[in-house]
């Protein structure tokens, strides 16, 4: 009996089959039941309807170290044939694509409304198959198509021997459908009941006492949230004093815009859908010039459009937080797949040279805490602060203790913002006054006693345009000096797990940290002792710290989701240390097995650049849309 | 608390009893007259004069003024008078101004740009700012050329020229006023910087307008546009008659058609029809206004 330790996957036709509805209901209920849920590998296509969609979920007693490998315990296939006369089964994508990941002894639940599928090969592997005519139950018995998802939920809970008294499901259903009336609530609960009954019928008919899997509630010792990276960073922005947001709809950043459109006004702020990517960042910069904390959010293509404005922020010293929820590029790329390939753009993008800060949270918790830092840093250093997530982190959900968001009262520090009293003391105000730290006092327009001229042209201390060589030199150095100050005062060193001395060191950034830690554990079990060094503050690159931490490694291995190893190149060029790389860029998340395999190839075969996925079995060709 | 300096009103520029603006005040914190980098006779001098007159009349103070200058000779105007100024990318002026005004309705926000900045590279912003209607005044210094890059044609080049054949490379000029009306602008006007006093009267009306106020100002480039000169504008410009009702959209279109038929350029307010708008306060910005935001109601959504 496996209790509270499994990975399931729900799959179906996008929009039609309600994959996310099922995992959302599951996730919420399990969270309330004191279990830990991690769902960060959702696969979907850049289309609205018709393509295959799937959502894997790890369920455990303790916070899972990572999402693990693709191997599944339970496969839930919500798709059904829409054309039963077709010789090939067009809408059996879930089974076709994922059955090879289903473990021996696992469970398959599939919608049998339009017919049964051959399951001999599966049953030979000890897999228990549950045909579930969910669509038909919903449509024909309950006269409400959409509750087929609840039929599946009910079936799944019965398979997992969970929520036998239906108290948790009832509570959620009542909450969700209160406004739609008692009849809808009742129909949903009936649907779940029917799902349970079908499973019981199958169990009896097959003579199975159970499936070998069991979920049990645990005491909820503290309030917990099931939250995604985008949601966490949006709340972090509000907490961090951001009161102006502008964004253009783009996968996967649109959710930030929608969240802030709904909630930012409650805190006195405004969120605007720009008419395009450039209007968004320009309006945000205008708000920042006007004295308000401002932010924009986008993904790769939108970031490319904004590049000119990086320069404005850097040169005119206008603070702004720029969120890049990275997705697979280049160009339109794969809008619904995760990648870490925009690092070069945020570090080097833009003509000329500007001060800039690049942060990359690793977890949903850091999406919140580091976002507050991001706004403080933008104000203190009066430059662009890039906040890099990736699609998996942005959209991935995880159980997080509520205390992460409420424990300490985060400080809003607006840096050198001057007030009227300060001005009278100092005499003629100079927006770009040369200072030892490089940071000049900043004026909010409307403050009596001073005015500013702020420009993207080179300028003197007052902000008037100047090309005087001495002034230009002084200003370039002033702006650069701000970054020296940052490295001294605010840059956080990488997180080190284990001792790097004389060992192979796995280096990463962004959402790969859990995977590296998982791989580290597995390697240790195989007698390979590796350290993990994970960076959250990527630029300006902390060369001295990096050299100290990485310098004594036996071999440095960067693990990242891009083709060339962009962070590896940064480490190499800044520290002169050679960096091997394990890279994955096929749109799938990195798995611990990828890292373990890659490390072995590097250590045993002397390979310097491992490209994950080349040995993978040929995937089933299933159309995913544009 | 400095907060008292910043009006919590819904967009009205306020006067500080400490210092009512005079003409001399506008010359402080500004490039001295002899250092101004406009050619002698540049139409922008007229815009500058008209702007100072209008701001004085409206009792706007430099501290409460935020000018957003476009790229080019025209955008330099931001340094030639007292007041806060921002200068970003080409075509961006209106988008920056939008964000600034949305955040600080208490400031007087004026975008000052050329016809290239506004109608070529920035035309997307022009269209959408007309739609969004922020309380921003825009003065377009319209001279038919890109002066700073030495005289290339802008989208308004070719006015009044008798050209027999057009091409994709050299298309005919388009009408700023028609574009503004089409895009839903609530204040559409045109002026001539060769008559700064008259222009300033239009600027005053623009400053008073509760919404986006567009002023297309003919500002001759004496160096690069030898066709649309001061004399040319004096000959072809014509005051909009007092009988015109600017609140009437049909009348506005008819006026444009009439003037076009007669080969004349209307000077004055073509259309003025403020919208009903939500009133907004300035956004919170001081640390004491931002510290300790209670996000617990948001966390409830994820339990």
> In one word, what is the shape of chain B?
globular
CATH class of the largest domain in chain A: Alpha Beta
Helix content of chain B: 25-40%
As for the CATH topology of the largest domain in chain A, it is Pyruvate-ferredoxin Oxidoreductase, domain 3
Approximate strand percentage of chain B: 15-25%
Radius of gyration of chain B: 20 Å
Unreliable spans of chain A: none
Largest interface: A-B, 74 and 61 residues
Shape of chain A: globular
Strand order of the largest sheet of chain B: 2-1-3-4-8-7-10-9
Q: What would the average pLDDT of chain A be, to the nearest integer?
A: 94
Derived structural class of chain A:
alpha/beta
Major beta-sheet overview of chain A = 8 strands, mixed
SS element count, helices of chain B: 10
CATH topology of chain B: Rossmann fold
Overall pLDDT metric of chain B? 93
CATH superfamily descriptor of the largest domain in chain A = Pyruvate-ferredoxin oxidoreductase, PFOR, domain III
Overall description:
The complex is a heterodimer of chains A (626) and B (303). Chain A is an alpha/beta fold and 626 residues long. Chain A has 4 domains: 213 residues, Pyruvate-ferredoxin Oxidoreductase, domain 3 (3-Layer(aba) Sandwich); 181 residues, Thiamin diphosphate (ThDP)-binding fold, Pyr/PP domains (Rossmann fold, 3-Layer(aba) Sandwich); 73 residues, no CATH class; 117 residues, Rossmann fold. Chain A is built from 21 helices and 27 strands. An 8-stranded mixed sheet of chain A has the order 7-6-5-2-4-3-17-9. In chain A, strands 10, 11, 12, 13, 14, 15, 16 and 24 form an 8-stranded mixed sheet that branches. The longest helix of chain A has 25 residues. The radius of gyration of chain A is 27 Å and the shape is globular. The two termini of chain A are 43 Å apart. Chain B has 10 helices and 10 strands. In chain B, helix 1 packs across helix 6 and helix 3 crosses helix 4. Chain B is globular, with a radius of gyration of 20 Å. The N terminus of chain B is likely disordered. An 8-stranded mixed sheet of chain B has the order 2-1-3-4-8-7-10-9, sandwiched between helices. In chain B, strands 5-6 form a two-stranded antiparallel sheet. Chain B has 303 residues and is of the alpha/beta class. In chain B, 52% of the residues are buried.
